[in-house]
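Translate structure to sequence.
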């Protein structure tokens, strides 16, 4: 299977097979091609090359409806239930029982109740789905698959928002489906779950199939290495034999003087993050790393105030920061380069100048009015310093490349005179040249006395920092120092 988008290759020659009654885990980092393959199998995307066979017959999955009719049922992380309808209506949405021209409501409720009961769920089928907890909504999705006599059930990050007891119920349901001959394709970043439920694993990296092996024959550490590949071996591990590993901070080690620039005490969000404590000393670059889905993005948002925290404390320069208030975070000297820069870091319809000054409007305003000439001057100076490639600061920021957009977000916080930056996935989706320039600006910020918390699922980026916190399933499982870190040891914590 191959897929290209406007000349950009997303998948190249990927083969995936799953037998009746078998579960195959699909593994890979962000950008590996998992989502593209899922879309092709579910009928949401058409391949550029390749074919699909179900039970030995070639089929063309031209739409999700055709895929379902062919026996493929996909359960996404964002469930496709209709919240306003009842449980019974959702289970039989595409096949409502009829009595003449009308819906047979009594038979609908009876059949839905029986289907769910067979799966081990006692749910009031007359309730609106919007009033149910997530675990029961997921049970409805599986009931839909059972009712439609699905041959293949594809699950995309099904436990991302499920507590552990509900996840165990889901695994029990999947084992039952396997015992009944249903094929399972299981996509998850949680390796322990994949190894618990899957018979074989297929690993993708950079749009290519790296390995397909029995799960029992691949240690989890080896699976991580196969997922990361050259990003680790050719980047940091390839240089690990040298006397010094590359370091983003020119000031070296020994950050012990004074109060921490940023401190987090026992932070939880009531969903994923649990009892997180960390510190960033003045002038220090600290990484938070883990496999995608471990909680790095949520932690960054919680610290900055873009996501509510249920407990815990955040301090900037020793002073407590009020929860849920990005405005106060900015006033305290804290800046955030979010993972989703287009959604959270930029206003794409506005100009480069307007985006650069967005966090420092008081500096460019007077008596409630913007001083456009000053805004332009500040923006032009910052654009020149950061080498932002643009036709001019009046250009829409949405028209810039990914690397130049990231530079605009970085420049926004430099203009706001931020002393502490939370940098989430700083080089994701940018080319090699832009990546080097972003690293150079991060180094310059640290050299000027700034402090930085780098949230990244890229191991080589984490290894460039002074200290590293390893996050797994919302908890910190290790704290490592740059000079003492064995990359193999770091990999062993990534589960």
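Result:
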């Amino acid at each position: 299977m191959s897929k290209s988008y406007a000349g950009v290759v997303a998948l190249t020659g990927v083969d995936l097979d799953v037998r009746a009654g078998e579960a195959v885990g699909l593994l890979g980092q962000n950008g590996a091609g998992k989502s593209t393959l899922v879309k092709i199998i579910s009928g949401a995307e058409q391949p550029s090359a390749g074919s699909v066979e179900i039970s030995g017959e070639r089929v063309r999955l031209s739409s999700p409806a055709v895929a379902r009719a062919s026996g493929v049922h996909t359960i996404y992380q964002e469930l496709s239930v209709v919240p306003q309808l009842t449980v019974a209506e959702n289970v039989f949405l595409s096949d409502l029982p009829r009595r003449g021209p009308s819906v047979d409501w009594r038979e609908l409720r009876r059949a839905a109740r029986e289907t769910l009961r067979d799966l081990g769920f006692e749910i009031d089928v007359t309730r609106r789905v919007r009033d149910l907890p997530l675990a029961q909504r997921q049970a409805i999705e599986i009931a839909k698959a059972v009712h439609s006599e699905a041959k293949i059930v594809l699950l995309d990050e099904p436990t991302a928002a499920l507590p552990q007891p509900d996840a165990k119920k889901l695994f029990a349901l999947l084992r039952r489906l396997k015992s009944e001959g249903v094929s399972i394709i299981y996509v998850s970043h949680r390796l322990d779950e994949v190894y618990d439920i899957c018979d074989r694993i297929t690993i993708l990296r950079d749009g290519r199939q790296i390995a397909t092996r029995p799960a029992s024959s691949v240690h989890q550490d080896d699976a991580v290495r196969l997922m990361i590949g050259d990003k680790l071996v050719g980047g940091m591990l390839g240089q690990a034999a040298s006397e010094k590993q590359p370091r983003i901070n020119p000031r070296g080690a020994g950050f012990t003087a004074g109060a921490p620039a940023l401190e987090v005490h026992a932070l939880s969000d009531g969903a994923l993050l649990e009892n997180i404590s960390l510190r960033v000393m003045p002038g220090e670059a600290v990484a938070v790393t883990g496999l995608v889905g471990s909680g790095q993005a949520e932690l960054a948002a919680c610290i900055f105030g873009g996501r509510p925290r249920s407990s815990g404390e955040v301090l900037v320069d020793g002073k407590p920061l009020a929860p849920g208030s990005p405005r106060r975070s900015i006033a305290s000297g804290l800046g955030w380069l979010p993972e989703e820069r287009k959604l959270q870091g930029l206003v794409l319809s506005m100009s480069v100048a307007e985006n650069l000054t967005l966090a420092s409007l008081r500096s460019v305003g007077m008596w409630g009015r913007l001083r456009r000439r000053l805004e332009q001057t500040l923006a032009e100076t910052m654009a020149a310093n950061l080498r932002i490639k643009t036709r001019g600061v009046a250009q829409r920021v949405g028209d810039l490349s990914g690397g130049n957009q990231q530079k605009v977000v970085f420049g926004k916080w430099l203009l706001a005179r931020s002393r502490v930056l939370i940098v989430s996935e700083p080089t994701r989706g940018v080319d090699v040249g832009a990546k080097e320039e972003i690293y150079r600006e991060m180094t310059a910020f640290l050299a000027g006395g700034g402090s930085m918390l780098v949230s990244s699922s890229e191991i080589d980026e984490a290894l460039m920092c002074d200290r590293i916190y390893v996050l797994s399933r919302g908890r910190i499982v290790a704290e490592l120092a740059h000079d003492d870190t064995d990359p193999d040891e770091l990999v062993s914590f990534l589960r």
